[in-house]
Write a structure and sequence with these properties.
The chain is mainly alpha-helical. The protein is built from 15 helices and 3 strands. Strands 2-1-3 form a 3-stranded antiparallel beta sheet. The radius of gyration is 30 Å and the shape is extended.
Length: 403
């Protein structure tokens, strides 16, 4: 069987207007036949020189997918036909690979596939939740409304991820800088002072001798130290990727960390509320919605809790009771869910809860950043300042003796 390829075409549509685009087919003649079936008279069909390939360049980031969804929602709300909306959005993007991804989806849709089916061919970019929501929108005839909801969901999710990443990245970056600066001082600067101290002919202070010993060890084994450190990090990342038990243990420990644990907990609750609100509002049955929500919490402790909630709800138990029985959800969201269930406005209460916890995460990140700045400066001061004091201590003592 011949392999499919992407063909560029130019022609006229049913109204006689000039049009052009791309289509996936096995040959130019079959491509022309497919275009005729769509009401397009193709005047020129030629094979695209560089076919779509995810391995040939950088991946589209989640933020790019959120932007694509928002633009598609805007186009469809304005009355632009779906296939034409793909072309407009793809042509307006700065990243070629994202444009190729969108055109690949567009070609499948123009070839007769549903929007959801076309998205499912690219699971690395469109997860099950995304595809299921688009499918629900197509089935109900409210695709533009659903795309708007998905866009809002993706935008808020990415904003939340960025805030949590900001909280975790800042101290790690400062500690890495401190490690690099200390290494340079120990390998390049301390040996210069050591040569000067040899001419003193006197016993060095204990602190200075301790730093010199560390410097000598670092000079001798710095490659080994780097290799061991790199091996530990790489081994940990590989083990975390392969071992489910290790990931779960790390997630449990993360929730118990001071300050950072609170941020992770609130972000997981916010993701749970936001995802469940979006899926439930889309008309997805609660049990099915909880299936999609479980993988979106970002923490295995909450993933297990949501799956337990799903099992309880499937037996007829109310959502707020099953959430309370897990022991991991804050009392506030449980009460909000209870009110939502009683009033028949569960999606609205979940949306309000998500907004509340997202705001809590933002405030916690700002407070943590403000707290970490002086702490990190203190760490840098102790490390770098300690090394400098250790080097100048013999000179101070010599000055005192001479004086």
């Amino acid at each position: 069987m011949a392999e499919s390829a992407v063909f560029l075409w130019e022609g006229t549509d049913k109204q006689g207007k000039k049009s052009k685009g791309e289509i996936t087919s096995v040959s130019p003649s079959i491509a022309r036949a497919e275009l005729r079936r769509q009401g397009i008279v193709a005047k020129k069909v030629k094979k695209k020189t560089t076919a779509f390939s995810l391995s040939s360049g950088g991946k589209a980031k989640p933020a790019d997918i959120a932007l694509f969804t928002r633009q598609m929602a805007t186009m469809m709300r304005a009355g632009v036909p779906l296939v034409q909306a793909f072309d407009i959005v793809a042509d307006g993007l700065d990243k070629p690979k994202v444009g190729e991804l969108i055109r690949a989806v567009r070609n499948d849709v123009s070839g007769g596939s549903s929007f959801a089916a076309a998205l499912r061919k690219h699971p690395a970019y469109f997860d099950d939740l995304f595809c299921n929501l688009v499918d629900a929108g197509e089935q109900s005839g409210s695709l533009e409304t659903m795309l708007d909801r998905i866009a809002t969901y993706k935008e808020k999710s990415e904003s939340l991820k960025a805030k949590v990443k900001k909280a975790m990245t800042y101290p790690i970056a400062v500690l890495c800088v401190a490690f690099v600066v200390s290494g340079i001082l120990l390998i390049k600067v301390v040996p210069q002072f050591q040569e000067v101290f040899r001419g003193f002919g006197a016993e060095l202070p204990a602190f200075t001798q301790f730093v010199i010993n560390i410097s000598e060890f670092t000079q001798t084994y710095w490659l080994v130290i780097l290799a061991v450190a790199g091996g530990i990090v790489a081994g940990f990342m590989a083990a975390r990727k392969r071992s489910k038990a290790l990931r779960e243990a790390i997630d449990r420990i993360a929730l118990k960390m001071p300050v950072a644990g609170t941020i992770i907990e609130k972000s997981s609750v916010a993701r749970y509320a936001r995802t469940l609100s979006t899926t439930f509002a889309a008309g997805v049955p609660l049990v099915d919605a909880l299936n999609s929500v479980a993988g979106a919490t970002g923490n295995s402790v909450y993933t297990k809790a949501v799956l337990r909630v799903r099992d309880d709800v499937s037996t007829g138990q109310q959502l707020n009771f099953s959430m309370k029985s897990t022991g991991v959800f804050p009392n506030m969201i449980i009460q909000m869910v209870a009110i939502g269930e009683e009033a028949g406005a569960l999606d609205d209460m979940l949306d309000k809860s998500a907004s509340y916890y997202e705001e809590q995460v933002e405030n916690a990140v700002d407070n943590l950043t403000a707290l970490m700045e002086p702490m990190m400066m203190a760490v840098l001061g102790v490390l770098v300042g300690g090394l400098i004091i250790a080097m100048y201590l013999p000179i101070f003592q010599l000055g005192a003796v001479v004086g």
